[in-house]
């Protein structure tokens, strides 16, 4: 994914605080579904790769023996640790690291997850191969990726706001070489060695009490927007923010649900 700034840690470092506060509204339904699909037990050890601020890790820790969480953003990991401490969860171990070179022994985990993280890896094949390596035989992997923006009224609303402030911003077209393509998603999992691969579509909806609430939720948890703010400077950002807020005020009806869709890729490590 050359040229994509989201393959580096810096944008995620910048957005860690806002992500921890606002992203759970969007991420929790997908994380909960991923855990349902994994068939966990109270004895399970699981790994959360590109864990971010730990939405899946925090949910998993309530039902398994141990969670190992890893992310390349140190501020994200700090927020994850703080959240685990606040919740009294003592079975999460979180560290900074690379999901393409996991610091874990082969065959260690009953289940492995990557919620909207592996999709950004510069080398997805390495990411899938490492996930496969650290699973025990019979273990389950669940990986999520966003569906094309055209299938997400929530994302389309935000891109509409961005274009109102900067006409050079265009709504992304479907990328059929990415995990937005279920056939590519399934093929890449199978090439890593996974069996019984299936790609499930999962949709959730969010509603906001006002356009301003939507703005706070979406913008403060958006790595691309936080990065843009830093790059253009506060004066230009203030002008753009005013235009985006005005667009949302004109186009979002308070308490109206907007859906967003993701693909969940499920695969199993074969028994010997």
In words, what does this structure look like?
The structure is a single chain. With 272 residues, the chain is of the alpha/beta class. It is built from 10 helices and 7 strands. The chain has helices at 10-22, 24-38, 55-61, 74-86, 124-134, 153-165, 182-191, 211-220, 223-232, 234-251; strands spanning 45-49, 66-71, 92-96, 109-115, 135-146, 195-206, 258-268. It has a 7-stranded mixed β-sheet with strand order 3-2-1-4-5-7-6. The two termini are 34 Å apart. The mean pLDDT is 91.
In short:
With 272 residues, the chain is an alpha/beta fold. 44% of the residues lie in helices and 21% in strands.
Structural class: alpha/beta
What does the largest sheet look like? Answer: 7 strands, mixed
Distance linking N and C termini: 34 Å
Mean pLDDT: 91
The arrangement of helices and strands along the chain is: HHEHEHEEHEHHEHHHE
Helix content: 40-55%
Radius of gyration, in Å, reads 19 Å
Strand content: 15-25%
Shape: globular
Give the neighbour order of strands across the main sheet: 3-2-1-4-5-7-6
List the helices and strands and how they pair.
Layout: H1 10-22, H2 24-38, E1 45-49, H3 55-61, E2 66-71, H4 74-86, E3 92-96, E4 109-115, H5 124-134, E5 135-146, H6 153-165, H7 182-191, E6 195-206, H8 211-220, H9 223-232, H10 234-251, E7 258-268
Parallel strand pairs: 1-2, 1-4, 2-3, 4-5
Antiparallel strand pairs: 5-7, 6-7
Helix pairs in contact: 1-4, 1-8, 1-9, 2-3, 6-10, 8-10, 9-10
